């Protein structure tokens, strides 16, 4: 069968990121996620928080990766201004197991205490207590350590490590992952920018002659150095230096982001701000990072009162006093002695003496001083990351990068529903409003959230998750994945993984392989024998021997392509049935189909054989049942019901290999209930966890209903549809009427009519139906999964017993010859 | 836009009748039966036992039953095919296949079971009997081994001969003329109510089988035509005026094609403007223009503004930049914004006006602002430099223009890449 299986790349692979074809199953959920991502990257919304649930292997991670890839490609085409930046987080790292952490801590303590094993038991106890106790407790015991050695004192004074809250751990993990993603992005962008520069140099070299290889080598060395240094948290100046050397200070290295600024000269500085901020945040977590700022204010005032001779003010008073003293002394001497000369000399001497006395006694001093010193130590601890992260995200957005946080494997986190609430209280603003978060989990948590939403009015999760998505795919989603949007596998139109290539070199060879070389090489003369000639007995054969088979011409490429197109459409139904609409099983089946040269390993037309007819019959019936109004509206009310409906409807398929009577009486429903319970249990929703929780809560065994977790009305409802499906698979008339009715309502269905070849391949004939009705709701199987009638197996009667095929061999040969005659 | 070369006609055999024409059931597969027949032949014509003989026997048994059951259907198909394909070229077998291919396409045999196919063929046979005096198929022959088979062959051969001679008596020009009238009524009716697309007439089927106009222009199922197909129809209407040319299309098709492409044409002035767009220069006669105007006046649906999505695929030029681009990676758009149609036509220069935009996904409308002053310096730029320059203005213009439905006066989008337009579906079809 020359139907080629296309090798689709995985969405996060290097090939996919560089533009290789990536074919994935899309669903309503994936389309919504992509649309919201696009809006985020257009900055139409500030943030979104998606809870994406699904059973194991349902393609949750792939869905997010595919949405990211699509938006990334949009950004490269410039249809969205920001480039998405995938930040992957491992759920169990975000919420480490609380039981494991103390054990690891204890093991660590054990290792540290072994170095001081010579110390007394009291010391060991003290260390152990300090590790586990509060800081206050540790401080209270400090007085007991006075007699210990210096080392012990040092150990004792070291504050006990404070146990981090879950929010702090989460913030650290988010920051680390963000740094990793940003560093990778910038490293790549830097290298590309360097490459572009080298390219332009080469162009210039073409013009001016001679490319400077040395310059190119140095440039790429710079890029390598930058990449390495990014993980060592370079400083602002160092980053700027890199940008300057890459000549990216103006337009930056990212070259795609940041709405209008990407084209402006501001892009480079925005990138630097964003990158430096992320590096700062990383530095807080990767070592001891301290930043101190000091401010010193000093005010000083000195007051000094000194009288001296050179000062006029200070000189006048003693001078006057001296003059007065000298005058008085002179007047006294003149009155006493009557000698003017003697009185004058005496007065002068008095004045000089008075002056000298004044100078000594008038010198005084006073001084005031005030000093104020400020010391500000930045709090760069991890605890402050909740304030830093929104700023980081904002700066990244400004630089043209839209971070998308994907928290995967949350189903491996114990007690998730309780623990995530703690984070909700602290980080709701960040998670739901300032960034784009995707939380990937299994069905259990999803159902708990849904249950809480229905039982409590507006619980915290109500606003914490902006969207609750459940990954489930409709049959047409899978078919689109297999044979393309238009349901046609021809290579010109198909975007699916199964493609028919009419003119592929291997196509004809493969297609004609099963045809005998004799047939293919039959000369034209033989091929145009008349019916009479064909009817003549072969000369070499006895008269009773059958006529030779018709000499057929080798099929033309057009015939082969038409054949293959039919086969591919039928094959899609067979694959969907055998995978039971499970993405992982479908991929495995397709991989198993791969033959030589990447083609489907089936002969042309083989898929239309009896061993596949029942697959088509069941699959088509299931899809028709799923389209029925009641069931369709039941599923559409809550998308997680889709998988449950699938499980219920594939009940008959799962019973088929057993080949026991199919009993669908109402009173014998227990088997169906158990089956449904098992299906839910094996798809990863772990009902045993719920069972354990409930048992612990109530202290009693569960009822059967609780075990199944599907309420009785739902089971009744689904069971009725299984009964209806069995009716269709046993009544070809009812089945055919349903097909006709469905095709006559294209508007209601919103889908193209069911392809005629599929209806034909379903073999809707009385003796070709899968089930044979014994009495209402009691059936036996007409065929086993190999397409054989159970009665025709070894030991049973042969289906073709007594059939002589020689007559039909001749008849077919005659018809072929007759057609040739007509066409001549 | 080059029309792809027609595929070679497959031979008339059981494989073609089942897998290609879908007249006979596809199950069991003729290819599988052929394998069984070949294996039987290598084992003494089925006399010897061999591994897997049981399944081969089952295949042969089932296929023989299919043939016996569907003998009347086969009889009707061969006669109707011969009548429809009477004007086709090639051997009788090839003519029958081409006639049946047109029937199968028009009536959707691929989605029908034998009974429905038989009903369709009966209806066609009645029309053929009424209009072309093709002999009635009342006595549809059953297939039986031996003499019965010989009788069947003789009857069918006679029926085919009579049907062919009856239809060949009618002039090809008459068939073509009736076919175009039928196409016009169908296209307008389908535009008005997309869900009620009337079926193709017998003459349309004959024209398709013989690859006469309108076969190369309008598909038997117009709702499945893509932007590329409708663009071809538009350019065909602006092309040759010789009805004998397979690429001929009447001028009124301009108006209808534009409406299918998402453009609104409201008056005769606009019709004339559009008619002058053709790169080969249109020689619109007064009568042709009148016919287009009359059609416009008669069909209110043509005057309404149909969609927010419109595009016209521009014919590829050998001198175009796109000859150097890898397929599927980019498309070229010719900008028309703020540039009246007549002026643009006068200044049309493929190399000067082309610019680049991302290929997929295609927004509702492309519009890149035309570089009004294409100076010598710009012309001298390398392809790479021109591409970079064009990219820098692309998305912003797309976003802006997407909100403005196009009108004939102002704008249109012209996509040159031969692969990307395949992804486009006319708005009318998306409504379906």
**Inertia-based shape of chain A:** elongated
Distance between the termini of chain A: 31 Å
Q: How much helical structure, as a percent, in the residues of chain B?
A: 40-55%
Largest sheet of chain A: 5 strands, parallel
**Integer-rounded radius of gyration of chain A:** 45 Å
Main sheet of chain B: which strands, in order across? 1-4
Shape of chain B: elongated
Distance between the termini of chain B: 26 Å
Largest sheet of chain B: 2 strands, parallel
Low-confidence stretches of chain A: 108-156, 257-262, 504-549, 682-687, 697-708
Oligomer: heterodimer
Care to describe what's here?
The complex is a heterodimer of chains A (824) and B (432). In chain A, a hairpin with a 2-residue loop joins strand 11 and strand 12. Chain A is α/β, with parallel strands linked by helices and 824 residues long. Chain A has a five-stranded parallel beta sheet with strand order 3-6-7-2-8, sandwiched between helices. A three-stranded antiparallel beta sheet of chain A has the order 10-12-11, with helices on one face. A two-stranded antiparallel ribbon of chain A has the order 1-9. Residues 108-156, 257-262, 504-549, 682-687 and 697-708 of chain A have low confidence and may be disordered. Chain A starts with a strand and ends with a helix. Chain A has 37 helices and twelve strands. Chain B has 432 residues and is mainly alpha-helical. Chain B has 20 helices and four strands. Chain B has helices at 14-20, 30-42, 53-69, 71-84, 92-107, 114-132, 147-168, 172-192, 202-209, 227-237, 252-261, 268-275, 286-298, 300-303, 341-346, 350-353, 376-379, 383-391, 394-402, 427-431, and strands spanning 312-313, 330-334, 354-358, 414-415. In chain B, the strands form two sheets. In chain B, strands 1-4 form a two-stranded parallel ribbon. The two termini of chain B are 26 Å apart. The relative contact order of chain B is 0.09. Classes of the chains: A alpha/beta (824), B mainly alpha (432). Chains A and B meet through helix 23, helix 24, helix 36 and helix 37 of A and helix 1, helix 2, helix 3, helix 5 and helix 7 of B.
């Amino acid at each position: 069968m020359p139907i080629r299986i296309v090798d689709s790349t995985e969405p996060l692979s290097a090939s996919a990121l560089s533009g290789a074809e990536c074919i994935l199953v899309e669903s309503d959920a994936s389309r919504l996620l992509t649309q919201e991502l696009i809006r985020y990257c257009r900055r139409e919304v500030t943030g979104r928080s998606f809870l994406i649930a699904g059973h194991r292997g349902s393609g949750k991670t792939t869905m997010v990766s595919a949405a990211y890839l699509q938006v990334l490609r949009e950004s490269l085409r410039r249809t969205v201004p920001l480039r998405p930046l995938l930040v992957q987080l491992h759920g169990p790292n975000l919420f480490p197991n609380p039981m494991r952490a103390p054990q690891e801590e204890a093991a660590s303590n054990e290792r540290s205490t072994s170095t001081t094993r010579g110390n007394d038991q009291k010391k060991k106890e003290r260390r152990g207590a300090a590790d586990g106790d509060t800081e206050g407790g540790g401080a209270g015991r400090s007085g007991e350590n006075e007699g210990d050695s210096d080392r012990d004192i040092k150990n004792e004074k070291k504050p006990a490590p404070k146990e981090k809250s879950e929010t702090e751990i989460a913030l650290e993990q988010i920051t680390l992952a963000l740094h990793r993603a940003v560093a990778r992005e910038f490293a790549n962008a830097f290298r590309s920018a360097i490459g572009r520069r080298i390219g332009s140099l080469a162009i210039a070299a073409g013009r001016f002659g001679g490319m400077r290889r040395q310059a190119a080598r140095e440039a790429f060395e710079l890029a390598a150095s930058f990449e390495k240094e990014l993980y060592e948290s370079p400083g602002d100046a160092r980053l700027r230096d890199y940008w300057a050397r890459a000549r990216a200070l103006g337009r930056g290295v990212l070259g795609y982001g940041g709405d209008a600024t990407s084209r402006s000269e501001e892009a480079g500085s925005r990138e630097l701000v964003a990158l430096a901020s992320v590096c700062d945040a990383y530095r807080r977590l990767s070592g001891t990072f301290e930043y101190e700022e000091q401010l010193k204010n000093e005010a000083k005032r000195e007051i000094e009162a000194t009288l001296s001779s050179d000062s006029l003010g200070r000189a006048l008073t003693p001078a006057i006093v001296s003059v007065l003293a000298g005058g008085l002394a002179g007047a006294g001497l003149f009155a006493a002695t009557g000698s003017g000369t003697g009185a004058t000399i005496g007065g002068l001497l008095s004045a000089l003496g008075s002056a000298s006395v004044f100078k000594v006694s008038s010198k005084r001093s006073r001084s005031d001083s005030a000093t104020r010193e400020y010391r500000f130590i930045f709090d760069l601890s991890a605890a402050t990351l909740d304030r830093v992260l929104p700023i980081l995200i904002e700066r990244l957005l400004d630089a043209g990068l839209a971070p998308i946080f994907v928290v995967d494997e949350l189903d491996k986190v114990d007690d998730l529903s309780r623990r995530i609430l703690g984070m909700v209280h602290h980080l709701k603003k960040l998670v739901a409003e300032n960034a784009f978060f995707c939380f990937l989990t299994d069905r259990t948590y999803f159902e708990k959230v849904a249950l809480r939403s229905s039982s409590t009015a507006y619980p915290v999760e109500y606003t914490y998750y902006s969207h609750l998505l459940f990954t489930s795919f409709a049959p047409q989603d899978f078919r689109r994945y297999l044979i393309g949007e238009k349901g046609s596998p021809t290579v010109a139109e198909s975007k699916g993984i199964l493609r028919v290539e009419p003119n592929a070199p291997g196509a004809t060879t493969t297609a004609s392989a099963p045809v005998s070389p004799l047939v293919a090489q039959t000369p034209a003369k033989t091929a145009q024998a008349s019916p009479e000639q064909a009817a003549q007995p072969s000369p070499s054969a006895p008269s009773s021997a059958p006529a030779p088979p018709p000499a057929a011409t080798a099929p033309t490429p057009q015939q082969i392509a038409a054949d293959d197109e039919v086969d591919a459409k039928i094959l899609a139904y067979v694959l969907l049935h055998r995978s039971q609409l499970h993405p992982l099983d479908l991929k495995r089946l397709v991989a198993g189909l791969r033959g030589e040269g990447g083609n489907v390993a089936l002969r042309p037309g083989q898929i239309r054989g009896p061993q596949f007819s029942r697959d088509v019959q069941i699959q088509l019936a299931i899809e028709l049942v799923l389209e029925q109004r009641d069931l369709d509206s039941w599923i559409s009310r809550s998308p997680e019901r889709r998988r449950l409906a699938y499980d219920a409807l594939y009940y008959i398929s799962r019973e088929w290999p057993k080949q026991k009577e199919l009993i669908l009486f109402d009173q014998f429903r227990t088997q169906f209930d158990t089956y449904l319970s098992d299906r839910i249990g094996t798809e990863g929703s772990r009902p045993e966890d719920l069972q354990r929780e409930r048992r612990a809560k109530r202290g009693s065994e569960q009822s059967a209903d609780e075990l199944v977790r599907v309420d009785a009305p739902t089971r009744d409802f689904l069971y009725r549809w299984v009964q209806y499906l069995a009716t269709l698979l046993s009544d070809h008339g009812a089945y055919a009427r349903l097909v006709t009715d469905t095709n006559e309502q294209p508007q209601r269905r919103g889908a193209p009519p069911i392809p005629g070849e599929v209806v034909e391949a379903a073999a809707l004939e009385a003796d070709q139906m899968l089930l044979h009705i014994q009495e209402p709701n009691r059936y036996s199987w007409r065929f086993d999964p190999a397409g054989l009638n159970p009665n025709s197996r070894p030991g049973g009667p042969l289906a073709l017993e007594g059939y002589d095929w020689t007559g039909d061999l001749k008849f077919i040969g005659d018809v072929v010859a007759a057609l040739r005659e007509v066409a001549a | 836009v080059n029309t792809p070369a027609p595929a070679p006609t497959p031979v008339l055999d059981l494989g073609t009748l089942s897998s290609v024409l879908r007249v006979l059931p596809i199950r069991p597969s003729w290819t599988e039966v052929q394998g069984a027949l070949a294996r039987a032949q290598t084992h003494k014509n089925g006399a010897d036992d061999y591994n897997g003989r049981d399944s081969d026997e089952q295949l042969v048994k089932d296929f023989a039953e299919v043939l016996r059951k569907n003998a009347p259907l086969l009889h009707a198909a061969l006669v109707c095919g011969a009548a429809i394909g009477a004007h086709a070229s090639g051997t009788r077998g090839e003519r029958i296949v081409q006639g049946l291919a047109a029937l199968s396409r028009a009536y959707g045999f691929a989605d029908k079971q034998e009974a429905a196919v038989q009903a369709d063929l009966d209806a066609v046979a009645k029309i053929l009997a009424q209009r072309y005096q093709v002999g009635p198929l009342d006595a549809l022959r059953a297939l039986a081994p031996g003499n019965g088979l010989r009788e069947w062959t003789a009857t069918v051969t006679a029926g085919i001969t009579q049907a062919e001679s009856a239809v060949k008596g009618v002039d090809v020009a008459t068939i073509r003329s009736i076919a175009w009238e039928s196409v016009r009524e169908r296209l307008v009716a389908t535009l008005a109510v997309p869900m009620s697309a009337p079926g193709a007439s017998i003459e349309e089927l004959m024209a398709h089988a013989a690859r006469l106009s309108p076969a190369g222009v309008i598909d038997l199922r117009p709702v499945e035509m893509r932007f590329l197909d409708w663009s071809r129809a538009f350019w065909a209407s602006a092309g040759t005026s010789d009805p004998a040319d397979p690429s001929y299309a009447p001028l009124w098709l301009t108006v209808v094609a534009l409406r299918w492409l998402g453009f609104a044409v409201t008056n005769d002035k606009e019709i004339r403007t559009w008619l002058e767009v053709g790169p080969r220069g249109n020689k619109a006669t007064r009568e042709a223009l009148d016919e287009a105007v009359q059609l416009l006046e008669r069909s209110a649906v043509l005057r309404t503004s149909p969609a927010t999505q419109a595009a016209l695929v521009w014919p590829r030029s050998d001198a175009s930049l796109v000859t150097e681009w890898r397929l599927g990676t980019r498309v070229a758009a010719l900008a028309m914004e703020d540039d009246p149609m007549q002026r643009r036509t006068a200044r049309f220069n493929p190399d000067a006006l082309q610019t680049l935009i991302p290929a997929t996904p295609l927004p509702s409308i492309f519009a890149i602002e035309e570089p009004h002053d294409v100076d010598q310096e710009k012309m001298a730029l390398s392809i790479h430099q021109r591409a970079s320059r064009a990219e820098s203005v692309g998305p912003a213009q797309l976003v802006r223009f997407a909100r403005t439905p196009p009108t004939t006066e102002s704008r249109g989008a012209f996509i040159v890449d031969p692969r990307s337009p395949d992804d486009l579906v006319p708005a009318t079809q998306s409504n379906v």
